[in-house]
Design a protein that fits this description.
alpha+beta, globular, 90 residues, single chain
């Protein structure tokens, strides 16, 4: 799993090569994003839970137990959300 740089939301930090596919997009955990942005894990989960492109992996288990999901946020979704947040504060 890649680590987040401190400028993870900086749109010009990395120039992605043309032709990158969704499979090449690094995935981040809510904990990694929260640490980089200095916010809580819960805030990150709420911020991204309805974003298109976020990946949820169900954990296997019995039907009677509460279901847990693993969230992964692609770098492209992280950048999109950060950009829209920055636009709202200008």
């Amino acid at each position: 799993m890649p680590t987040l740089r401190s400028g993870a939301c900086d749109q010009t930090a990395d120039n992605e090569p043309a032709g990158d596919t969704a499979l090449d997009d690094p995935l981040y955990t809510p904990q990694e994003i929260a640490k980089s942005l200095k916010v809580s894990d819960d805030y990150v989960r709420r911020l991204f839970e309805r974003e298109q492109g976020v990946i949820f992996l169900p954990s296997p288990g019995k039907e009677s137990k509460r279901r847990y999901r693993t969230m992964r946020v692609p770098k492209s979704v992280l950048r999109r959300v950060c950009a829209s947040c920055m636009m709202g504060h200008n």
